[in-house]
Amino acid sequence: MNLDPPLQAAILLRRYKRFLADVRLPDGSEITVHTPNTGAMTGCAEPGSTVYLRDVDSPTRKYRYSWEMTQNRDGVLIGVHTGLTNRLVREAIESGLIPALQGYAEIRQEVRYGQEGSRIDLLLQGHPSQPDCYLEIKNVTTCDDRSLGWFPDAVSVRASKHLRELMHVVEQGRRGVVLFCIQRDDVQGLRPADEVDARYGQTLREAIKHGVEAMAWVARVAPQEISLYRQVPVVCP
């Protein structure tokens, strides 16, 4: 995914009210920007960090700039815009990057399904030998000292619900897949964050035992471009 024009750097002053942040531009001026991430953003929102902004320049928006990336204290670029996640994964599927998700004739977005009133991120249909595939996508921005990304970064009742929905899909003879999109390039695996949300970790393990497929893909992140490029294992100790 090309980012055109490339993102511009700023210094993070503070994040607040979940959707807002104050930053200092290179010319010394301070502005408020939109934060397209509702999570805790652990390790991504420390004051003084270098952040990267997209100039939306839309007359309908209150805040002209959107916070897209953070450079952490180790110099790692992290994509924080959760709205890009589904686009990154769809682009990877359509380019043939993810072998396990190839061969489907049609990809649909935000399709209603399930027993708990959900919408699936991507529904893959029309494979000559595979059943329909219900693909739930989760954005990952965190990493521990063992180079394992972890999810979620806050308690998420909704994320556990999605796993239950995928288990029902598998029981009905269709494919259920959860794909963790890791928007940082220093990760060698993905684990459930049991210390943050024990219920989610338990539900993920149960889902895998019931046939839900779990996979994780890492993105190269740069101010000019972001794209998935390698798979890492999902580790559930």
Q: What is the SS-derived class?
A: alpha+beta
H and E string:
EEEEEEHEEEEEHEEHEE
Strand proportion: 35-45%
Terminal Cα span? 34 Å
Main beta sheet: strand number and arrangement?
6 strands, antiparallel
Instruction: Count up the domains.
Output: 2
Approximate shape: globular
Q: What is the CATH topology of the largest domain?
A: Trna Endonuclease, Chain: A, domain 1
Tell me how many strands there are: 15
From the alpha carbons, calculate the radius of gyration and give it in angstroms. Answer: 18 Å
Largest sheet, order of strands side by side?
A: 3-2-1-4-5-6
What is the CATH C level class of the largest domain, in words? Answer: Alpha Beta
The appropriate CATH architecture of the largest domain is 3-Layer(aba) Sandwich
Low-confidence stretches: none
Please summarize what this structure is:
The chain has 237 residues and is an alpha+beta fold.
Question: What does this 3D model show about the protein?
Answer:
With 237 residues, this protein is an alpha+beta fold. The chain folds into two domains: 8-79, OB fold (Dihydrolipoamide Acetyltransferase, E2P) (Beta Barrel), CATH 2.40.50; 82-232, Trna Endonuclease, Chain: A, domain 1 (3-Layer(aba) Sandwich). 16% of the residues lie in helices and 39% in strands. A six-stranded antiparallel beta sheet has the order 3-2-1-4-5-6, with no helix packed on it. The model has no long low-confidence stretch (mean pLDDT 95).
Labels describing this entry:
237 residues; alpha+beta; OB fold (Dihydrolipoamide Acetyltransferase, E2P); Trna Endonuclease, Chain: A, domain 1; 2 domains; 6-stranded antiparallel beta sheet; 3 helices; globular
